[in-house]
């Protein structure tokens, strides 16, 4: 009788393990295929890539200290305290990337301002080397100045805006599903260098969706004196960085559309 019970336990564990590992193999195989074909270039909005190219490209500057994370949110963890930030501390890099990909790189002329100190030092080294060599070389061209400065911040990262779930159990067999929605908000404004006036101000939001599902089975043996229980599940969280990237790109797209409406830039093509 005891051998029969052990065999039964092993059979239940084997079947549960096979089902679990098959599920995990399929999940990770699919993720591997997706990771193999999806490139970072394909993550930005299709509308931003296909926006109409302006007749004259506006020259814009983004300072690192002028576009930062102002949420103060820390990475969440239910087991212990974390001191790392929930969002990237260099959102200006994502903004510059969005600007450079607008209209497939044909909309804005972005000048370097985040590493301006390094650029200035390098130009000084070049001038010094040319002076010591006494060679007649054309002088360095002056740095390109911007007519527009883009400023703003990640102003909000709201967690647990919507939470919920559902579950059921019957004769020792149960299944449950839970979900959660967070929200990241980006503020972006366009400032005129000539006058200091804020020409355009936009807000953009992106939802961060997370879900988890689990299944469990338990069975009593020997008239309820012994219990065998098997539990499995998985969860998926949207990338916060990718969601922030899409919120920034949405803000850039809205800024471009408003700029067309207010005639800050124009194009030669007619829209049907």
Write the layout of secondary structure elements.
Elements: H1 2-37, H2 46-49, E1 59-61, E2 67-69, H3 91-101, E3 109-111, H4 116-133, E4 148-170, E5 173-192, E6 198-221, E7 226-237, H5 240-261
Helix pairs in contact: 3-5
Task: Report on this structure.
This protein has 272 residues and is α/β, with parallel strands linked by helices. It has a single domain, classed as ABC-type transport auxiliary lipoprotein component (Rossmann fold, 3-Layer(aba) Sandwich), CATH 3.40.50.10610. The chain is built from 5 helices and 7 strands, in the order H-H-E-E-H-E-H-E-E-E-E-H. Strands 1, 2, 3, 4, 5, 6 and 7 form a 7-stranded mixed beta sheet that branches. Helix 3 (91-101) crosses helix 5 (240-261). Residues 10-18 and 31-41 have low confidence and may be disordered.
- Report the sheet with the most strands, covering strand number, pairing sense and barrel closure: 7 strands, mixed
Second rung of CATH, namely the architecture: 3-Layer(aba) Sandwich
What is the assigned CATH homologous superfamily?
A: ABC-type transport auxiliary lipoprotein component
Number of strands: 7
> What is the end-to-end distance?
81 Å
Strand content: 25-35%
Q: Structural class of the helices, strands and pairings?
A: alpha/beta
Question: Which CATH class?
Answer: Alpha Beta
In one word, what is the shape?
A: elongated
Supply database-style keywords.
272 residues; alpha/beta; seven-stranded mixed beta sheet; 32% strand; elongated
């Amino acid at each position: 009788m005891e051998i029969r019970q052990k065999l039964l336990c092993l059979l239940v564990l084997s079947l549960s393990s096979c089902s679990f590992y098959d599920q995990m193999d399929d999940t990770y195989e699919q993720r591997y295929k997706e990771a193999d074909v999806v490139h970072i270039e394909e993550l930005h909005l299709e509308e931003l890539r296909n926006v109409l190219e302006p007749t004259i490209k506006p020259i814009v500057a983004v300072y690192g200290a002028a576009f930062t994370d102002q949420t103060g949110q820390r990475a969440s963890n239910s087991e212990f305290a974390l001191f790392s930030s929930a969002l990237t501390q260099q959102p200006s890099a994502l903004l510059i990337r969005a600007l450079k990909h607008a209209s497939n790189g044909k909309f804005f002329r972005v000048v370097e301002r985040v590493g301006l100190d390094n650029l200035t030092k390098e130009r000084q080294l070049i001038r010094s080397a040319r002076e010591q060599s006494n060679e007649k070389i054309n002088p360095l061209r002056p740095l390109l100045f911007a007519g527009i400065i883009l400023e703003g911040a990640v102003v909000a990262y709201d967690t647990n805006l919507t939470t919920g779930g559902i579950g059921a159990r019957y004769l020792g067999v149960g299944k449950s599903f839970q979900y959660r929605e967070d929200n990241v908000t980006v503020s972006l404004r366009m400032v005129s260098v000539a006058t200091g006036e804020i020409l355009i101000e936009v807000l953009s939001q992106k939802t961060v969706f997370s879900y988890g599902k689990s299944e469990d089975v338990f069975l009593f043996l020997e008239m309820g004196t012994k219990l065998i229980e098997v539990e499995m599940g998985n969860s998926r969280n949207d990338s916060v960085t990718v969601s922030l990237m899409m919120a920034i790109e949405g803000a850039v797209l809205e800024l471009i559309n408003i700029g067309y409406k207010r005639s800050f830039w124009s194009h030669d093509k007619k829209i049907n």
